[in-house]
UniProtKB/TrEMBL annotation:
Domain Methyltransferase type: 163-254
Organism: Pseudonocardia hydrocarbonoxydans
Claim: Methyltransferase is one of the keywords in the record: yes
Pfam families hit by this protein: Methyltransf_11 (PF08241)
CDD domains recorded: AdoMet_MTases (cd02440)
An annotated GO BP: methylation
Molecular function GO labels: S-adenosylmethionine-dependent methyltransferase activity
Keywords, alphabetical: Methyltransferase, S-adenosyl-L-methionine, Transferase
Keyword DNA repair tagged: no
Name by which UniProt lists this protein: Methyltransferase type 11 domain-containing protein
InterPro entries, A to Z: Methyltransf_11, SAM-dependent_MTases_sf
Length: 351
């Protein structure tokens, strides 16, 4: 991606975080009105991922065992698991957000018990996660799991160990199992973990499963992925510390922070700003190494008993948690909201 386009890409990420309209309905690639993926807007990492051998493995993770397409596998899994007709499964995929709002508003969520109840009962996310994986397999969605696999590759010792935190429907873990990692899926949502186990076992994928807050162990993993997860965690500092203990020295944590301005359609995104989340991760003992596309952070677990770490942590506080840092971020968010107002005025829409 050219430098100018990279700048616009980063600006778009900042601005869209302030949009309160929500994601809205998914689209169906087989609808005649659906346009082809806009390759010209893809980042370099996105383009490489779509053409990567790892994308082939990702698509294979979605296909049914007896053969067929990724779409066949996604709708077949959801229909069979939930006892639905395929067409009903499709509609629940497309309109998952409406159902998620209903599930969120079915009970108070302003306490730890209320939040735990949501995660223990939510079903709409299984439709969202698998359909979005299908969209990624065709180039429509941002293929974060494949981008991570391209960045990490196979473990240099031949067989690594990987923890997928917030494993959802299990597709990321499937991808890394195909790359010869011993995979462990961990999720606070029992419905999602049960679905993932069902999907992987019927495809013959060996894995371990942890229903959080189960113990993660110590020095147990070479790699932890936490994709679209940290924004749903009510205790990010404790979570980051647990991940640090679970990783072997020098291990990698790859995470993103899908923060959104609070609204009905994003109420389960618990944070509007990524600074507190990034501060929690860095102070736990993780050194940022790379930021991919302004979205995916690659961290390395480093010793926390050295002078270098203390200096890095002090600088991280300045960047992420100090009053000047939070003030600058408040100004940036206000500017982003103003840009949205102007954009919708020009486009003749309102959100």
């Amino acid at each position: 991606m050219a430098p100018v386009l990279r700048v616009f890409h980063r600006i778009a990420i900042v601005v869209l975080r302030e949009d309160v309209a929500g994601q809205g309905a998914h689209f169906d690639p087989e609808d005649p009105s659906t346009e082809a993926p806009a390759r010209a807007r893809w980042t370099t990492a996105h383009r490489r991922a779509v053409d990567s051998p790892n994308m082939t493995l990702f698509r294979d993770a979605l296909r049914p065992m007896g053969g067929g397409s990724s779409r066949d596998g996604v709708l077949g899994d959801l229909a069979e698991y939930h006892g639905l007709a395929p067409e009903e499964a499709l509609q629940r995929c497309l309109h998952w957000e409406d159902t998620s709002v209903e599930e969120w508003e079915a009970a108070p969520r302003d306490s730890a018990d209320g939040l735990a109840d949501f995660y223990a009962t939510v079903e709409s996310w299984s439709f969202d996660l698998l359909w979005y994986a299908y969209l990624q397999s065709l180039g429509y969605g941002y293929p974060e799991s494949v981008i991570v696999a391209d960045r990490v590759g196979r473990h240099p010792r031949g067989r690594g160990s990987m923890l997928d935190l917030g494993s959802g429907a299990g597709v990321t873990a499937q991808l890394f199992a195909a790359l010869d990692y011993d995979v462990t899926l961990a999720d606070v949502s029992k419905p999602l973990l049960d679905l993932a186990r069902w999907r992987l076992e019927r495809r013959g994928v060996q894995a371990d499963y942890l229903h959080l807050p189960a113990e993660l162990g110590e020095d147990a993993f070479d790699l932890v992925t936490a994709l679209d997860v940290m924004v749903h965690v009510p205790d990010p500092a404790e979570t980051a510390e647990r991940l640090y203990r679970a990783l072997r020295p020098g291990g990698l944590l790859i995470a993103n922070y899908d923060v959104r301005r609070r609204s009905r359609s994003s109420a389960w995104h618990l944070y509007e700003d990524d600074l507190p989340l990034r501060w929690a991760v860095e102070r736990a003992g993780f050194r940022p190494e790379t930021l991919i596309d302004g979205v995916l952070w690659v961290y390395r677990a480093v010793p926390t008993d050295t002078r270098a770490w203390r200096l890095r942590t002090a600088w991280a506080w300045v960047r992420l948690a100090s009053p000047p840092a939070t003030a600058v971020r408040a100004v940036r968010r206000a500017a982003a909201r103003a840009a949205l107002v102007i954009a919708y005025a020009v486009l003749g829409t309102r959100r």
